[in-house]
Amino acid sequence: MKILVDENMPYARELFSRTGEVLAVPGRPLPEAELQDASGLMVRSVTKVNAELLAGTPVKFVGTATAGTDHVDDASLAAAGIAFSAAPGCNAIAVVEYVFSSLLLLAERDGFELRDRTVGIVGVGNVGGRLHKRLEAWGVKTLLCDPPRADRGDQERFHSLDELVAQADILTFHTPLFKDGPYKSWHLADMALLMALKPNTILINACRGPVVDNAALLEVLKMRSDLSVVLDVWEPEPDLNLDLLDKVDIATAHIAGYTLEGKARGTTQVFEAWCAFIGQPQQVALESLLPAPEFGTITLHGKLDQPTLKRLVHLVYDVRRDDAPLRKVAAKPGEFDRLRKQYEERREWSSLQVKCDDAESAAMLEKLGFRASL
Ligand SMILES: NC(=O)C1=CN([C@@H]2O[C@H](COP(=O)(O)OP(=O)(O)OC[C@H]3O[C@@H](n4cnc5c(N)ncnc54)[C@H](O)[C@@H]3O)[C@@H](O)[C@H]2O)C=CC1
Ligand SMILES: O=C(O)C(=O)[C@H](O)COP(=O)(O)O
Questions:
Q1: Which of 5, 6, 45, 336 for a ligand 2 pocket mutation test, highest count of atoms within 8 Å of Cβ?
Q2: What is the pLDDT of residues 190-233, one digit of tens each?
Q3: Residues 117, 208, 340, 346: which is the catalytic one?
Q4: Is residue 146 marked as binding?
Q5: Ligand 2 centre distance from Cα of residue 301 (Å)
Q6: Taken in order 64, 70, 71, 73, is the CA torsion positive or negative?
Q7: Residue nearest to atom 7 of ligand 2 (CA)
């Protein structure tokens, strides 16, 4: 049995080879000829998959090691009798830590306390929900917008997008990309929304590029130098708009979810789904795959204030390590994908053990996702 796996899926060779012959291939472009004798296809977000691509091939299972699924036409796969499985939530912690890393950087640059700001979260699922919890733990006021959850009668207090725009100092998008339907998110942030943002708003997009109208954003940034913008995702990718890149404050190559843990969880979630599909169920413990983190333990004396939190966060992941390389190479074809393929190992905050002499600081660090002890 031959299984094609995206070459950007850590641990895929060793796991999938337990069940068949594995071939690691680029995701963009996918070498389609290899599908002719493949039973399973494991992709990431850069590979567009539909029934047409798989017609006439023996592929019976498609897995994506990603949270987003807009690159897969799951309805056409279902109609063709092809099973599909994704990896919901696999990299949610990574995206939350990307957002914190960015906000703490901007807070230091502009001299504000996060606790004095209101953060509007659009899309309160695996990413937005965890972001909400960590911001609340740090004492930051949040406003939540999630119409699908509100319509389902979820107990959380939700607001309209207009309310977030009117009240939030920081607006961060974490929705799936829906091109149509009742919860259409394509160009959710359009010209009108962008112009209506409060003075000095920070806008973050770490979900899908087209959720923010990039052409409108460029026009707005030419008129409004008060706004700060963090973009991890672009419209389009990989050929992002270089004028827009110049104007945003933090720019990265769709790597917000790229912790080793996040990617490895994506691989194991899809592997377990594949094993269940072929009738050989197996569970994989993430810890059995991951190497020891670079920084083991660090000691913290006294109280945890914002500058100290920033130092700890940036010790594990400083978003500038991804911003500068993108700006250097973005004009060259192929470099956006190369940065993503050759991504230097990044770990989650939980990889850092912080020894504290203050109980309150230890409790706070634990709530935020570090490992802390007294
Ligand atoms: N930059 C990156 O590396 C990553 C990007 N993503 C993107 O972020 C998206 C969100 O990720 P998760 O939180 O894991 O997904 P999720 O499916 O757990 O949560 C999405 C939430 O958005 C809500 N939602 C749907 N339509 C909405 C709308 N029009 N307005 C407001 N809320 C809406 C849903 O009800 C749900 O609660 C993914 O679909 C993916 O496209 C996810 C992981 C990494
Ligand atoms: O999980 C998602 O959704 C993402 O956006 C991924 O982090 C994107 O990574 P690739 O699948 O494009 O490697």
A1: 45
A2: 999 999 999 999 999 999 999 999 999 999 999 999 999 999 99
A3: 208
A4: yes
A5: 38
A6: positive
A7: 257
Ligand 1 pocket, residue 343 CB under 6 Å: no
Q: Concatenated DSSP letters for 170-227?
A: EEEE-----SSSTT--TTSB-HHHHHHSPTT-EEEE-S-GGGB-HHHHHHHHHH-TT-
Consult the annotation and say whether 64 binds a ligand: no
Task: Report the helix count and the strand count for the chain, using DSSP H and E.
Answer: 15, 14
Residue closest to 278 by CA, chosen among 73, 53, 5, 61: 61
The catalytically annotated residue of 44, 132, 149, 254 is: 254
pLDDT of residue 295: 72
> Is this structure's pTM higher than 0.90?
yes
Q: What is the 3-state secondary structure (H, E, C) of 22-78?
A: EEEECCCCCCHHHHHHCCEEEECCCCCECHHHHCCCCCCEEEECCCCCCCECHHHHH
Per residue in 306-337, pLDDT (tens digit) is 999 999 999 999 999 999 999 999 999 999 99
Does residue 28 carry a catalytic annotation?
no
On whether 172 is known to bind a ligand per the annotation, the reply is no
Burial of 57 by CB count in 10 Å (0-12 exposed, 13-18 middle, 19+ buried)? middle
